[in-house]
Structures are given as C-alpha cells and as structure tokens.
Design goal:
The protein has a domain of 207 residues: Glucose Oxidase, domain 1 (3-Layer(bba) Sandwich), CATH 3.50.30. It is of the alpha+beta class and 552 residues long. A hairpin with a 6-residue loop joins β11 and β12. The strands form two sheets. Strands 1, 2, 3, 4, 5, 6, 7, 8 and 9 form a nine-stranded mixed β-sheet that branches.
Length: 552
C-alpha cells in the first residue's frame, strides 16, 4: 500500500528506569513548544512489504547505524553528528521505530537496511541528497539500484518510502535537535516546567497509507453508474412482472366469466377432457316425418322415453326448413326441454357419411350440431374444443382448462390491437368510397352464417363447412345415397396424393382414420397455437431472456 501522507510530531515519555510501572502512553506536545511537520505530497513508495492492512506504520524516528568505516566517513556529509540514534533511546524497550537515512551509496544503504532489520522497525524513510523539493523518481530509476537485483525488497520486512531532498534534510536537522535530554531540546525552559527532567522528548512519525483494494476514481464512478443501472433495471423488471401478473389475472377472470374464448380468439389451442365429453348426450338419429304424416311432433321409439322434438331442420337440397327431427336417446333420462335442437343435418360433417334412421348413434354438442361419436370425440379430445360447424366452444361456461401465461397475454393483446387497427383503417376510408355504387349483397339466409355453412342448394349438391376433400374416400364408407341424376360427376384433383389404406383394415378403422384426417383439415390454416413452448423456442435466445426480464 502506498503512502499518502506522513505526520511528524514531538512526543514526551518518561524514562522507564525511574518509574515503577510499565508505560505505554506517549504525550504529544503542543505545536507552539514543539516541532510538527505534515508531509502531504511528493512521497514515492519504493516497497510495500510488511504493511499491515489494518494499521498504518508508526514509531519513533531514528537513524540506523552503519557497520563500516567508509560509510561512517561518507555519512558525516549527510547526517548530523547528534542525530537521534538507537543509543539515544531507552534500552531494553521494544518501542515501535521508523528509520530515517539518506540514500547516497549502495553499500551504505544496504548497511542501513541490515541495521533496521535487527530492530522493531515499522517503516523506512529515505531521501536522495540535494536541495530539491520535487517528488523522488520511481523505483525503476537507476538511482535506486543497489546492484543486488532488487533482493533488498524481499529481505526487508518493512515498507520503504522516499521523500524529497528538502523534506529529508529538514527531518534530519530536527533529529539533531531532539536527541538529548529535556534540558537540551528546543523550548527546554517551558517544557522543564511541565515535565520531569528525566523524560525523553523525541520525534514520532505516522505514515497514512491507502487501501490496496481501493479503486481509482474512474472505476468508482463506473461502479456507481452500473449499480444505478442495475437498480433501475431491477425496479423496472419488478414493476413489469407485477403488471403482467395483473394482466394474467384479468385474462383469467374474463375467461371464467365467459367474455373471452381463447381458442376462438386464436390465443390458445384447447381440447375437451374426457369428463366433459362424457357429459355430452348421445341420441339415436330419427329421420324427419314424411309429408303425409300429421304436422305434429313425433314421439321417440321405445324402449327409450320421449325426450322432445327438434326444431325445424334445414333441408340440405333446398336450404329451407323442413319437418321437425325427432331423436331417440340412448343416454339416461333427460328433461324434455334440454335436448331440443335448433336444426338438424342428415350427414356427419366430419366423415361425410349419412346418418341411418333409427340406427345411427349421434353425439349432440351444446350448439345442437350432431356427429358420429367416434368422429367428434377424436376431434374434441385431440384437436380442438370448438364445434367444427359453428366454431362455438364445447367447454362449459366458466371453464379455464389451461394456465394463463405471459405468451397468451401478449397474443391476446396483439390480436386486440390488430382488430382495433383494422377497425380504425376501415373507418378512415375516403368519403368517395361511400359514393361508389354498392355491390349486390347476398340475400339474408335463415340462421345467419349457419345457413351459409349448411343450407342452400348449389348445382344440386350439399355445401358443408368442412374443407374440400382432396383425397378419395374409402369404398367402405361411401355415402349411402346416390347423387341426383343431374349432378355433375365428381373429379378428384390430380395433384392430391391418394389416401393410403391397408388391405387388412376394416370399415370401422378406415372411417376413423378418415374422420381423423377430416378433423385435422377442419382446423384450417388459421388455428390457435397448440403450445406456448413452440412459440418461445421459435424466437432467438436473447429475446427469450429479454422477455423473462421484461415480460411486456
């Protein structure tokens, strides 16, 4: 650790030989009657070995003794004769010491270091002879070379600090003044009235060092900036997580209240559980009454009880309402008012197979559309929770079968924004567009969009909501009825691959496979995503991490 400042003070302590107690307390003399010197700059650190990180070096100033006559002769040119030596301090006492010596010769400096190592020296202060107050050169300068390869730094167990020439000379002159007894020091008359004549008055030094782990001011500024940014990012991320949690709870409440249908909106692919599917009724299909029969509701055939009449059905050839359709139910007793249907269709929209009167079992959805159970069950359990005909949900009201995630919230908000943008664009069309001649519109059809899906006769063929079949149907599930004589022949697309069937499959397996393919085709190109994981894996990794931090 490098030295930042050095303070030199004058202290008084009693002679340990004339007192009957162990004295460890020194008295710092007042500045008016003593020498005090604070070195605040021009300090060069040559070695930091032996520095205690918990305590700065301190001790009584002294000049080490050299061991050779040649060094003693050279020392007289730089060190006063009466400068404080170890002999001028109480004997047999391990006082903390700080050595002061000029750096005028490699051999003499080595002897100074050797003498200081034999004493409880806390630090070593040195200076180069001269009369300049400039900061001493750095350690790599040739003037500090002792011709030992720098081994002196390893041998010493105390730090070494270099002072300017003027500062070193000043300290050495003061050591010459404070080396004798109390009567010979400066301001002896005043001090002798306060302290005993046997007391020692010497110079004391304290070296203030900086912490080795302390960062420069620029790094401190960068650390502070990074800390502020980290706190800002953390607070922003926390706020966004709270907002996103509220959005998830709001979307869940709207789903439970029946205000939002996740799959119909295109947010999430949902399926129907087996428990919900078991609650959907199964009836025995009954053909409509003929024209010769009275125009009244027909009763269901035994052994099942009469469970009600269906409303007027839409004729598949003409698009008009026909006679009511009655059904024989194979389900347990159901109230009469609960099984009435708004309309009926004679064909399963999935497998395109006609229902056989009094034989075919059909499953009725809450929207009153009927299907083969094996067709609609596969569709609802594996593919979608929406009716293939009217796209109404089969799930009961207030049901939320999936966990609301941030992906679903983002998708729902994106869809709402797109709809709002489309509505705004449509409303902002030029007024000249309204003056253009109106195109002919389709006449209203009974049951709204339902009639456009099922009813109506076009060229003598029935129209269904399912996509156009591109594969030939197996021969074992062909329609039971023959097409009208005037109907145009059906030609299969040459680009569509033929349906691969095995010879050992029975009619039931073929129809189920056909129904499964039809169920997949009915989903259409605009279906809701089946899994949030698929969308998350499709985006780059950095974006996934960014969404976890900022779930906007």
């Amino acid at each position: 650790m490098s030295a930042q400042r050095i303070g030199i003070f004058t202290i008084d302590f009693p002679d340990p030989l004339v007192i009957d107690y162990d004295n460890n307390q020194f008295i710092t003399l007042n500045e008016s009657v003593s020498f005090q010197y604070r070195i605040l700059n021009n300090i060069q650190t040559l070695s930091t070995k032996g520095v205690d990180s918990n305590q700065d070096p301190y001790g009584i100033l002294y000049v080490p003794d050299v061991s050779t006559n040649s060094c003693r002769e050279q020392e007289r040119l730089h060190v006063p004769e009466n400068a404080t030596r170890i002999a001028n301090l109480p004997t047999d006492k391990d006082y903390a010491l700080i050595a002061v010596a000029p750096w005028f010769s490699a051999q003499c400096t080595t002897e100074y270091f050797a003498a200081a190592r034999n004493l409880p020296t806390k630090a070593f202060l040195t200076y180069q002879p001269g009369d300049t107050n400039a900061k001493p050169p750095v350690l790599n300068d040739a003037s500090w070379n002792l011709q030992d390869g720098g081994s002196w730094q390893t041998a010493n167990d105390f730090p070494t600090y270099a002072l300017s020439s003027m500062t070193g000379n000043n300290i050495m002159d003061q050591l010459n003044e404070y080396s004798g007894n109390l009567s010979s020091v400066p301001h002896a008359d005043t001090l002798s009235q306060i302290y005993n004549s046997s007391d020692y008055v010497r110079l004391w030094a304290t070296v203030s060092t900086d912490s080795g782990g302390q960062l420069p001011s620029l790094w401190v500024f960068l650390v502070i900036v990074l800390a502020v940014l980290l706190v800002a990012v953390s607070i922003t991320s926390l706020i966004m997580h709270i907002i996103q949690r509220r959005r998830r709870n709001d979307l869940r409440e709207r789903v439970l209240n029946g205000q939002v249908d996740l799959e119909a909106l295109g947010v999430k692919r949902l399926t129907v559980s087996q428990q919900v599917l078991d609650k959907l009724p199964i009836h025995t299909y009954t053909a409509p009454a003929t024209a010769s029969e009275p125009e009244k509701a027909t009763t269901l055939q035994p052994p099942n009880q009469t469970i009600g009449l269906l409303h007027a059905a839409v004729d598949a050839e003409t698009g008009h309402k026909g006679a009511p359709l009655s059904r024989r139910s194979s389900a347990p007793t159901v109230p009469t008012s609960s099984v009435s249907a708004a309309w009926s269709q004679p064909t399963c929209p999935i497998c395109m197979d006609d229902f056989e009167a009094n034989e075919t079992q059909v499953r009725e959805l809450p929207c009153h559309h009927i299907f083969h159970p094996e067709c609609i069950d596969t569709f609802l359990l594996s593919h979608s929770s929406l009716c293939p005909m009217c796209k109404q949900t089969v799930l009961p009201a207030g049901a939320c079968p999936v966990k609301i995630t941030n992906v679903m919230v983002r998708r729902e908000r994106h869809i709402n924004r797109m709809r709002a943008r489309s509505a705004h664009t449509a409303s902002a069309q030029p007024s000249s567009a309204s003056a253009a001649p109106a195109l002919p519109t389709r006449p209203p059809v009974a049951f709204g969009s339902l009639g456009s899906r099922i009813g109506g006769a076009i060229a003598g063929r029935r129209i269904f909501s399912a996509p156009v079949r591109t594969q030939s149907r197996p021969h074992d599930i062909e329609m039971a009825t023959t097409p009208p004589p005037d109907a145009p022949p059906h030609h299969q697309s040459t680009n569509a691959p033929p349906l691969q069937t095995t010879q050992d499959c029975g009619p039931t397996q073929n129809r189920r496979e056909w129904a499964r393919q039809r169920a997949l085709a009915m989903l259409g190109p605009r279906h809701a995503p089946a899994s949030d994981v698929e969308e998350e894996e499709s985006v780059p990794r950095w974006r996934r991490v960014f969404r976890k931090v900022f779930p906007s």
